[in-house]
Write a structure and sequence with these properties.
With 207 residues, the protein is mainly α. The longest helix has 30 residues.
Length: 207
């Protein structure tokens, strides 16, 4: 079963319980969308620092990006600010960061191998995300979306190997060990490609 090979759904409750006190404190001074944009700023800073080869600073900025990404949705739910626009803004900012951090790492010491691996990884990432969100849209159309399942996310996403938590771990490894980015890019591209095939099979069986 797909649920047996990914951690994103099972860890979401733990993450929310840990971050809830911080989210409640922050909610008095900033809206959920503001936190999303602050998180985007930290992510773009991490990308810039990766390009400059400031590994420790880049990793700290990346962790702050993940922290703000973790609390913006909690703030929205605890203050009854949850909107479709907020969900859209959140996922858009996530993927801006997911694209620019690998670019920053590749531009640190660009060579043919790392740039080729970067291109392959981003291409597979693009195909995966196009398929994922088309699948989510079809499930919403069929009345099998997030609301019907009681999920807290804006749209439902059939689980597979690479999800949010797995992407965070992969990006963390890339940022911390930039000397091996050609291998990291290639390995992550292969894992995301497998994820595409998993969801293709899921769609064949369930749509």
């Amino acid at each position: 079963r797909l649920e047996a090979v990914m951690f994103d759904l099972s860890l979401r409750g733990l993450k929310d319980s840990v971050l809830l006190p911080l989210a409640k404190a922050v909610s008095t001074v900033a809206s959920a969308n503001t936190l999303t944009l602050v998180g985007l700023g930290w992510g773009l800073l991490a990308s810039f620092l990766c390009a400059l080869d400031y590994t420790t600073a880049a990793f700290i900025a990346w962790l702050l990006n993940r922290l703000f990404d973790g609390i913006d949705g909690l703030v929205a739910r605890t203050t009854n600010q949850q909107t479709d626009f907020g969900g859209y803004l959140d996922i858009l900012c996530d993927f801006v960061v997911y694209a620019t951090i690998p670019m920053g790492l590749a531009f640190r010491e660009p060579d043919f191998a790392s740039l080729y691996a970067l291109s392959a990884m981003l291409a597979v990432f693009f195909v995966n995300n196009a398929g994922l969100f088309q699948l989510s849209a079809l499930l919403e159309k069929k009345g099998a979306g997030a609301k019907s399942k009681g999920e807290v996310t804006s749209v439902t996403m059939p689980p597979a190997l690479i999800e949010g938590f797995e992407t965070m771990i992969a990006m963390s490894i890339m940022v911390l060990f930039p000397n091996y980015i050609t291998f990291w890019f290639s390995a992550f591209a292969a894992l995301v490609a497998w994820t595409c095939l998993q969801r293709l099979r899921w769609a064949q069986l369930n749509l």
